[in-house]
Design a protein that fits this description.
Helix content: over 70%
Largest sheet: none
Shape: rod-shaped
Structural class: mainly alpha
Order of helices and strands: HH
Number of strands: 0
Strand content: under 5%
Length: 94
């Protein structure tokens, strides 16, 4: 009779240990997933901020695209155009 009670106690302890180990392993796996998700959230938040900054810059360019100052700047820098009778000096030294 004592052997049966002792065997039952040992069996209960083994089952509790197995359940405990399972819970610890599950907890560790979930923590790894949570950490991965958090780093992904940080990365995506950074990407969103960059996209919003880019959008703001493009909106500013769009709003300014028809202004005479912008047209003159593009003509001078990208098209190498100048006003009539304007003297252009080119530095060939360095």
């Amino acid at each position: 009779m004592k052997i049966k009670l002792n065997l039952k106690n040992i069996l209960k302890k083994v089952i509790l240990i197995i359940v405990g180990i399972y819970l610890v392993i599950t907890f560790i796996k979930q923590q790894k997933k949570i950490n991965s998700y958090n780093s992904n959230i940080d990365y995506l938040s950074t990407k969103i901020e960059e996209a919003q900054d880019n959008k703001a810059e493009l909106t500013a360019v769009r709003d300014n695209i028809n202004s005479p100052e912008y047209i003159e700047e593009v003509a001078r820098e990208k098209l190498n155009m100048y006003k009539p009778n304007e003297k252009v000096y080119i530095d060939i030294g360095s």
